[in-house]
Amino acid sequence: MMRGVLPILFALIVFKASKAQNLTPVARNGVLKVQNGKLVNGQGIEPQLRGISFSWTLWQGQKYYNPGVVNWLANDFKVSIIRASMGVEPNGGYLQQPDKQQKLITDVVDAAIKDGIYVLIDWHDHHAENHMNESKDFFKQMTKKYAGVPNVIYEIYNEPAKANWKTVKEYALQVIPVIRKYDKNAVIVVGSPHWDQDVDIAATDPIIGYNNIVYSFHFYASDPNHQEALRAKANKAIKLGLPLMITEWGVGESNGDGEFNLSKTQTWVKWLIDNHLSWANWNITDKHETTAILQAGAPIYGGWTEANLTPAGLFIRELLRQPKPL
């Protein structure tokens, strides 16, 4: 009898494993939450989402904000998360053209939901404390539209440039209640001072009273100033129990250009893997700089060949297509 049962059990295990591999990232992981200082999925496991950030909506990458690119990233690059980076200022950004900028974002978000991947709605602002009312209104609209949708994550302040943690925290404590009025449980990403590097400072005085709050940490892998000392800041924050998400990192230097040092980049990638951190790489654009993943003139609706990809694009595509835990 057992000889007949074992092959059936084995076949069921293989079938379930195959079925799980065919599920979308959101179908596999479900609703994200923060638990014991970690971002986890519906099974309480750290999923390590991996993907790519679109460039600013008001810069060269704007033309790639369309469902075709999202679909290509999901199916060819095998991303589990993307980041929609809405430029707030200078001219042409959300402050001047809110309807245009918001539509670029929602087109990408809607496509991500359809493709079953996670998406960061990024208020891509270096001075968000100066645009409090606009930020509140934007996230009110976004949360009313996407409340309860498990794909959507809200990033409320990209890279505070000069604001200290007190200012960033006070801003967050104004915006978070707006989101929570409509969406009680969505993950919210809070910025940290010094271009999202000083997470160790945030870790000593974290936001309390709200669930599912994570903190953004950014680095540029080849930058000489973004090496062991910067990892030490993040390691300290992790040790103190601060949940981190790498909402932006690049293979080049902090200005988006400069050297692409493979050895330094591989050290950072290993650190990401060792710490089970979710990330979005910067960025989808054909601008002539090191961190751009596309060569000039790459098709605007996806369908890119290897010839359309820069060295950064080839590296990131290969990394994303490698097997991952979830």
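(ticket continues) Second input and output from the same batch:
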Amino acid sequence: MVHRKYFGTDGIRGKFGNNPITAEFFIQLGIAAGNVLCKHSTSCIVVIGNDTRESGPILKSALAAGLSCSGISSLLIGTIPTPGVSYLTKFFQAEAGISISASHNPFNDNGVKFFSRSGKKLSKIVENKIEKELLKLSCNQNNLLCKQKYQQTNGIQQYLKFCESTIPNNLNLTGLNIVVDCAHGATYQIAPNLLRKLGANVIAISCKPNGININHECGTTNIFPLRYRVLKEKADLGIAYDGDGDRLIMIDHLGNIVDGDQILYILVRDKIKNKKFHGGVVGTLMSNMGLEIALKRLGVPFLRSHIGDRYILKTLEENGWTIGAENSGHIILLEHSSAGDAIVAGLQILSIIVHNKTTLKNLCKGIQLLPQILINVQLNKQSNPLKSHAVKRVSAVARETLAGNGRILLRKSGTEPLVRIMVEGTEATKVIKLAYHIATIVKSER
């Protein structure tokens, strides 16, 4: 078994300038990925896109240079949402797609997400092969001789056509006032322009990326600026994206947050109403119990996967189902895409609102989320307090306190040096107290 030194739960991620997020490493990564992905091909193409981080162009050039040394041509498609890379990989019939992004992380982080020729995240088996190849390269210095050229190409218009193809041709958003928060990220041009084209009156915020403001106090990681603007403008709703456009959170006209669990419920209920729903639904270990209860009332089977959209996709495919989501806003709609696509998911909700002549708030009737709190505790890279006796003991006591009327989940993040503590239950006060008590013990054991 290959030791996974670089790949986490969603590609490779870290601080720019620190190994492995350096130009030097990305050249090596390009060589290793090229050697694995196009081992038996003489004419291989890889699609590369990036978000708005200032480090993106540097890493993109280094990665393309490394791929070139492996005899691979790259199509550099510029700033585009991660799901756009997934789609364009299939459209251009490329061997792979690579998004240079750290998703919802701060600007000084960056990383890569790999997609296979089918537009799905690379399997762990292939990631392990790239890890193994990287270890070989570290022992044998390569002669960096570029064998293939890489070229710039604009795939944005094609991606826009794809997004539009997922909704009815006659969808007209005229009369809808929508506030859109693009997190100074990859959706900053695409999302507002598309919604305006469909007739909506769009108030765009956090749409002026400067390389260092991506996800800074905006987007899905800080919903309050969007909420404030929706209420100030008396808008019909608000949509927040994360930095690379693969997750969304919404705000209704009264300022209520509508998360991935509620969005999933709205989509499922509408499909049932229109007799277009078959099978079941996949959530994750973080999905709110309120979603599970609401789906049960609809008679919809519900399964929880591990956290991460790759695991949702795996569970969907194993069961022959087509719809799943994380409460953080990753929505997977296999009828449209094998990647979580925030723009596409948002368009589906807007289509439902218009078709039913209703509001986002009304669509949320039928699902009552249980009080849930998530606390992140910062770690150094070596510590793992989850193994400590004190943390195990306090968790066990907390579960006894909830007495079956709630859940506790403690896990190390796969993308950041954090322990995530989630407590959920029927009584808000009890949930908050238990979460902060557990967090205190976790901090003492770091």
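Agent notes: The CA atoms of residues 116 and 123 lie 8 Å apart. The mean pLDDT is 93. Closing as not reproducible unless the customer responds.
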